[in-house]
């Protein structure tokens, strides 16, 4: 079986590429486990100065893998915490679409850049659940009015709107044009000082994990077990509208 995450190193930057095209890089139990392990390994490797999280195909991450019952909210919380607490900066390089839990990955990263064709959506409410666990890294960073709109509508929004909302750092017609000066700058930074600077800028997010992780994991598990969610997920997999869509 091909690993769902590929690793490559170049001049101190480790690129972790989500490579699970069969489910559009959805957050299966296997992908979350492997990515969590790869992030931990990057954190421990002295030659790695920073991490870039990117993807193959036209989807960065489709969100939860609705076909994998072993993909738990607790595993997602562990993965997101691993990005936030990694003592090295992590950049999301998004040159495609992201939905649901994929936005949690983007929000957990220290920097997020996207291509102009990228599209985003908090699609949870349309399938009968809520963006619970991913709120841990997202709500401290998102503009409150933008969060209200996109959490409560499930609307698709573009890279420019995502930047204004605080989801992205920047967007560009060529995503690598936006990312390159950031990774080059990280190579010039002292590793210890960079770790301390990241500790400062992630303070609010880390407090959110300490305060709310257990309750939001429990909320997510409860919502996924409701009749409404079962119907919503079935409708999604069957490519039809759920009964509440009018």
Brief overview:
By secondary structure, the protein is of the alpha/beta class.
Keywords:
Enoyl-CoA_hydra/iso, four-stranded mixed β-sheet, alpha/beta, Enoyl-CoA_hydra_C, Enoyl-CoA hydratase family protein, 10 helices, catalytic activity, 2-enoyl-CoA Hydratase, Chain A, domain 1, six-stranded mixed β-sheet, Enoyl-CoA_Hydratase/Isomerase, about 250 residues, 10 strands
Description of the structure:
The chain has 246 residues and is an alpha/beta fold. It has a single domain (1-174, 190-246), classed as 2-enoyl-CoA Hydratase, Chain A, domain 1, CATH 3.90.226.10. The chain is 47% helix and 17% strand. The protein has ten helices and ten strands. The protein has helices spanning 29-44, 73-85, 101-108, 135-138, 144-153, 159-165, 175-187, 191-201, 203-224, 227-237, and strands at 5-10, 13-18, 50-55, 59-61, 90-94, 97-99, 111-115, 119-121, 157-158, 170-172. A hairpin with a 2-residue loop joins strand 1 and strand 2. The longest helix has 22 residues, at 203-224. The radius of gyration is 17 Å and the shape is globular.
Strand order of the largest sheet: 1-2-3-5-7-10
CATH topology tier name: 2-enoyl-CoA Hydratase, Chain A, domain 1
Return the CATH class: Alpha Beta
CATH superfamily: 2-enoyl-CoA Hydratase, Chain A, domain 1
Using DSSP, what is the number of strands? 10
The gross shape turns out to be globular
Number of distinct helices: 10
Number of domains: 1
Overall mean pLDDT score? Answer: 97
Parts with pLDDT < 50 across at least 5 consecutive residues: none
The helix content is 40-55%
Radius of gyration: 17 Å
For the record, the CATH architecture stands as: Alpha-Beta Complex
Largest sheet: 6 strands, mixed
């Amino acid at each position: 079986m091909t690993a769902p995450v590929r690793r490559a190193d170049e001049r101190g930057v480790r690129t972790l590429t989500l490579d699970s095209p069969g489910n559009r890089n959805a957050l299966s139990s296997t992908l979350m486990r492997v990515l969590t392990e790869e992030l931990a390994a990057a954190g421990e490797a002295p030659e790695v100065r920073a991490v870039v999280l990117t993807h193959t195909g036209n989807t960065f991450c489709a969100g939860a893998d609705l076909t994998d019952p072993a993909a738990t909210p607790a595993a997602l919380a562990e993965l997101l915490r691993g990005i936030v607490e990694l003592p090295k900066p992590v950049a999301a390089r998004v040159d495609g679409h992201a939905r649901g839990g994929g936005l949690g990955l983007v929000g957990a990263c220290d920097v997020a850049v996207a291509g102009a064709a990228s599209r985003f959506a908090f699609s949870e409410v349309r399938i009968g659940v809520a963006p619970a666990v991913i709120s841990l890294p997202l709500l401290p960073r998102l503009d409150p009015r933008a969060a209200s709109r996109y959490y409560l509508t499930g609307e698709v929004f573009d890279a420019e709107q995502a930047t204004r909302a605080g989801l992205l750092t920047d967007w560009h017609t060529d995503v690598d044009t936006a990312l390159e000066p950031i990774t080059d700058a990280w190579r010039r930074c002292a590793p210890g000082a960079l770790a301390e600077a990241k500790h400062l800028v992630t303070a609010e997010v880390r407090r959110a994990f300490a305060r709310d992780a257990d309750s939001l994991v429990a909320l997510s598990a409860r919502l996924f077990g409701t009749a409404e969610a079962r119907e919503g997920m079935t409708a999604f997999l069957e490519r039809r509208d759920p009964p509440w869509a009018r």
